[in-house]
Please model this.
Amino acid sequence: MTASQPSTDPAAAVREGYFGAFGGQFVPESLSDALTRLVDAWADAQADPSFGEELDALRRDYGGRPTPLYRAGRLSEAAGVEVWLKREDLAHTGSHKLNNVVGQALLARRMGKPRVIAETGAGQHGVATATAAALFGLRCTVYMGAEDCRRQRLNVVRMQLLGAEVVPVESGTRTLKDAINEAMRDWVTNVDDTHYLIGSAMGPHPFPTIVRELQKVISVEDKEQFAAQAGGVPDAVIACVGGGSNAIGSFAEWIEVEGVRLIGVEAAGEGVGSGRSAATISEGREAVLHGSRSIVLVDDDGQVRPAHSVSAGLDYPGVGPEHAWLASTGRGQYVAATDEDALEGFRRTCELEGIIPALEPAHAVGWLLRHGRTELGHGARVILTMSGRGDKDVDEVVEVAGWDLGVAKAFGASGGDRAPGGVAGSDVPPVSDATPEVSS
Model:
């Protein structure tokens, strides 16, 4: 799909909190006043040069920005396209999440809110929120599904070390959707002194816009970096999509650039149509979830379906409303990668580039390895956002993939009976030998 589609003017799209038919505020009356005050506070902050100056200084001196844009030579050879990695994994706390969190923490302080709450799936947003709370002296509570606490134990410990209260959520599927439900309940109860620091470009207006504007720094930087390092513009910008903060930040500056394809990679779990997927745009439909109208995984009765992904960060049945709009206008192309694709992307990025990726961007790498050459054409130039590092995922990957890594197994990791992984040869099938389960 190309940019020759209906108008994608962001200013027009966000009028009254909507992106086309998507967005809005579908919340209890008790939150209406808080959202109105948040809209005003955000407008005031954007109009105040000192807010932007302090944010820029924190991003630079505390967060480590700008992050590099790196030409991944060996991965390029394997994928058949020229791959440039935007290294958000090198930002402080190890992911893109700090971009949004620092800005919202500044906003909370500006609004006189001494407490922040957050939801988290893989723990990256929770760690970033706990970090910012420590930095600004804010009280912090993070809701996290109990299953995600198990999968991401390292990040739970990191949040606790940073002074946050981590609340395991035992309801539902015990994953991200249920954590958001609990955070919403907390916010309704404590709205007077608490800011809900949403981690993705979802939720009621103005959260999708705030998160997009704070994450836009990713594409502002890589647009300049690509022109300086590679020349011109890329053929495509690729990012993984759960709720969609990383992807919308990666797309934002490219939306109006004709000829640059925007490709969001959703998590298909065990495959689109399998019943165990988180590929929302690929198999969902319009519905209201967590305060806004978007595209959601629902059953025939309109009930939200459980989502599944090997990645706790993508294990969500909805998507941010701006992504729903980009998909509906054709400006964005949304494809899907399975758990198996993600594990392949994880392993190959380790082997070829010496980078241990988070499972979230590993989906984008896996899709690129499987489909990049045919979908984009040999030699196409692409930017892929490496949204986070994979320390948190190592134990889960070894367990799920069943890779026997020798030392890891000796120290208690539950390796299976498959052949050794890594350079010695994992039994995850080579990309060229595997039968694609999903496509765009």
